[in-house]
Specification:
single chain, 25% strand, mainly beta, 1 helix, 110 residues, 6 strands, elongated, two-stranded antiparallel sheet, four-stranded antiparallel sheet
Length: 110
C-alpha cells in the first residue's frame, strides 16, 4: 500500500486558498450590502453550524433557536463584537421595519 498523497498532483497549482472558498470557515455564502449609508458584511449561516447556540434577533427581538439557519451581519469596518444574528426574513425586511416601543403587558396601545 502506498502512502497517502497530501499534495496536489500538479506541482504548478498551489491548490485552493482561503479566498477561493466563499463559504468561509463556518459555512454560508458571504456578501456585502449597503444599509443606512454603511457597507455591511452579511453571511448566511446553515443550521448545522449553529447547533447548540441561541441568539436574539435585533429585527424582531425574538430568540433564534439552536440549529436554525439565519444571517449574521456586521458593519465592514467594525469588530467581532458588532456582529448581529438575524432571522433571514427579518434581515430582508429591515428597511420596512419601524422602531417599536417596548410596552408592558397592561400598557394602553394608543
Amino acid at each position: 500500500m502506498s502512502p497517502r498523497r497530501n499534495r496536489p498532483k500538479d506541482s504548478g497549482s498551489p491548490g485552493r486558498s482561503a479566498e477561493d472558498d466563499p463559504a468561509g470557515r463556518y459555512g454560508g455564502l458571504q456578501s456585502s450590502e449597503s444599509w443606512r449609508g454603511e457597507d455591511w458584511s452579511v453571511r448566511h449561516v446553515a443550521g448545522a453550524s449553529a447547533e447548540g447556540k441561541t441568539y436574539r434577533c435585533p429585527g424582531c427581538d425574538q430568540m433564534i433557536p439552536s440549529g436554525v439557519p439565519h444571517v449574521v451581519a456586521w458593519p465592514e469596518h467594525a469588530g467581532v463584537d458588532d456582529r448581529r444574528h438575524w432571522h433571514k426574513a427579518c434581515w430582508n425586511a429591515k428597511d420596512r421595519r419601524t422602531t417599536r416601543v417596548q410596552r408592558s403587558r397592561n400598557a394602553p396601545r394608543f
